[in-house]
Design brief:
Membrane topology: Peripheral membrane protein
Distance between the termini: 160 Å
Structural class: alpha/beta
InterPro entries: AAA+_ATPase, P-loop_NTPase, Signal_recog_particl_SRP54_hlx, SR_rcpt_FtsY, SRP/SRP_N, SRP54_GTPase_dom, SRP54_N_sf
Number of strands: 8
Shape: elongated
Transmembrane segments: 14-34
Subunit structure: Part of the signal recognition particle protein translocation system, which is composed of SRP and FtsY.
Catalytic activity: GTP + H2O = GDP + phosphate + H(+)
Strand content: 5-15%
C-alpha cells in the first residue's frame, strides 16, 4: 500500500520518463530527416528524359535507331556505263583514211618515179632506196624492183594511170592477200577460244588487249580478260578499266604474282562461265632476257592443261622498224606466233614493215592500230592497205 509520501515521488518519475522518451523520439526523427537529406545530396541528379525523334523509314519492322546520314538515292548513285564499240565497217573506213594520210608519201614517191619520162638505172636505184627507207626490207625490195623492171620492159608504161595499176598489183602481191588473216575467236562445243597476246614493253600490248575486247564485244561475243602482266605497275588496273567500259570481266592476281597461275585461272573462269573468248595479257618481256622468254613458254604450257591456245598475237610497234623485226624473230623462237598486231601504224610513213614482218615470220598481219582512240584497232586488209598507200 502506497503511502501519501510515495505517490508524489512516483508521479515525478513517470513524468521524467515520459519526457525522456519524447526527447528520444524527437531526436530520432530529426536524425532520420538529416540522413535522408544527406543521401539526397549525395545521389546524382536524374538524367533528363531523351527526346525521341521519329525514325527514318527502313526496310523491315520497327527500326529502333534513326540514321545520322541520309540514305543515297538512285539519282546520286554512279552506275557503270557500258559502251557499245564501233562496228568493224566503221573502223575499216577510218583505217583507209588514216593510212592514206600517214603512208601517202611512200606511194606518191613510187608513182612519181615510175611515171617519169625516162626510167633509167638511177630511177630504179631511187625506187629501191624509197622502199628500203620505208622498212620493206632488202629481200622484198629487190624482189619487187625486179618484177617492176620486167613489167615495164614487157608492157611499157605510157602514163601515170598505167604506172599506178602496175605498182598496185605488184604491191598487193607482195603483201599477199591469200594469207589467212581471220582471228580464231569462235567457241567450240565445250571450251572458249584462247588468245594469248605477247610483246615487249611500250608496244601498246595491254591497250591492244582492251581494244580487241571491244572488237569482240561489237561482234556480240562474250569475253573474259586475264591480267597475267603482274610485273608492270598498274597493268591489271589498266586492263580492268578497259574491260569495265564494255562490260567484260577481268581475272587478276596480286602484283608480282605468278603469271602462269593467273592465266590458268582466267581460262578456268572462262570455261566455267561459258564465254566465247578468253584474252590473256602477258608481261612485256624484253627479247634480251632469256629467263623471261622461257617463262612465256611456261604460261602457254600451263594454259594448255585446260584448253588449247588458238591464237598467239605478237604486238609490234610499227615505228621501231628493224628492231621490231628482231623482237619478232626472238618471240617466234620461243612461242608459236600465229598473227601480228602492228600498232602506231598511222604514226609512221614506214608502212613497209607490214611486208617485212610477214616475210620474217611467215605469219600474217591480222590487226593494225591506227591511233589512241578506243576503237582504233582494225582488221588488216591487204588491198585496202595498198590503196591507202597509193591514194
Amino acid at each position: 500500500m502506497l503511502t501519501p509520501q510515495v505517490v508524489p515521488l512516483l508521479t515525478d518519475q513517470v513524468l521524467i520518463a515520459i519526457i525522456a522518451v519524447a526527447v528520444i523520439l524527437i531526436g530520432a526523427s530529426a536524425g532520420l530527416v538529416v540522413s535522408r537529406r544527406r543521401k539526397a545530396q549525395e545521389l546524382p541528379p536524374p538524367a533528363p528524359t531523351p527526346r525521341i525523334e521519329p525514325a527514318e523509314p527502313q526496310v523491315g519492322d520497327d527500326a529502333e535507331e534513326p540514321r545520322d546520314t541520309p540514305t543515297r538515292t538512285l539519282e546520286d548513285t554512279e552506275l557503270p556505263t557500258v559502251e557499245r564499240p564501233e562496228s568493224a565497217q566503221g573502223r575499216l573506213v577510218r583505217l583507209r583514211a588514216r593510212l592514206a594520210r600517214s603512208q601517202g608519201s611512200l606511194g606518191k614517191g613510187l608513182l612519181a618515179l615510175l611515171s617519169s619520162d625516162k626510167i633509167d638505172e638511177e630511177t630504179w636505184d631511187d625506187i629501191e632506196s624509197t622502199l628500203i627507207t620505208a622498212d620493206v626490207g632488202v629481200g622484198p625490195t629487190q624482189e619487187l624492183v625486179e618484177r617492176l623492171r620486167t613489167r615495164v620492159r614487157v608492157e611499157g608504161i605510157a602514163n601515170a594511170e598505167e604506172a599506178r595499176s602496175v605498182l598496185r598489183s605488184e604491191l598487193v602481191a607482195l603483201v599477199d592477200p591469200t594469207l589467212d588473216r581471220s582471228l580464231k575467236t569462235s567457241r567450240t562445243d565445250t571450251k572458249p577460244a584462247i588468245v594469248l597476246v605477247v610483246g615487249v614493253n611500250g608496244t601498246g600490248k595491254t591497250t591492244t588487249v582492251g581494244k580487241l575486247a571491244r572488237v569482240l564485244v561489237a561482234e556480240d561475243k562474250q569475253v573474259v580478260l586475264g591480267a597475267a602482266d603482274t610485273f608492270r605497275a598498274a597493268a591489271a588496273d589498266q586492263l580492268q578499266t578497259w574491260g569495265e567500259r564494255v562490260g567484260v570481266r577481268t581475272v587478276r592476281g596480286p602484283e608480282g604474282g605468278d603469271p602462269a597461275s593467273i592465266a590458268f585461272d582466267a581460262v578456268k573462269a572462262g570455261i566455267e562461265a561459258g564465254v566465247d573468248v578468253v584474252l590473256v595479257d602477258t608481261a612485256g618481256r624484253l627479247h634480251t632476257k632469256t629467263g623471261l622468254m622461257d617463262e612465256l613458254g611456261k604460261v602457254k604450257r600451263v594454259i594448255e592443261k585446260s584448253a588449247e591456245v588458238d591464237e598467239v598475237l605478237l604486238v609490234i610497234d610499227a615505228t621501231t622498224g628493224q628492231n621490231g623485226l628482231t623482237q619478232a624473230r626472238v618471240f617466234a623462237e620461243v612461242i608459236n606466233v600465229t598473227g601480228i598486231v602492228l600498232t602506231k601504224l598511222d604514226g609512221t610513213a614506214k608502212g613497209g614493215i607490214v611486208i617485212a614482218v610477214q616475210r620474217e615470220l611467215g605469219v600474217p598481219v591480222k590487226l593494225v592500230g591506227l591511233g589512241e582512240g578506243a576503237d582504233d584497232l582494225a582488221p588488216f586488209d591487204a588491198e585496202q592497205f595498198v590503196d591507202a598507200l597509193l591514194d
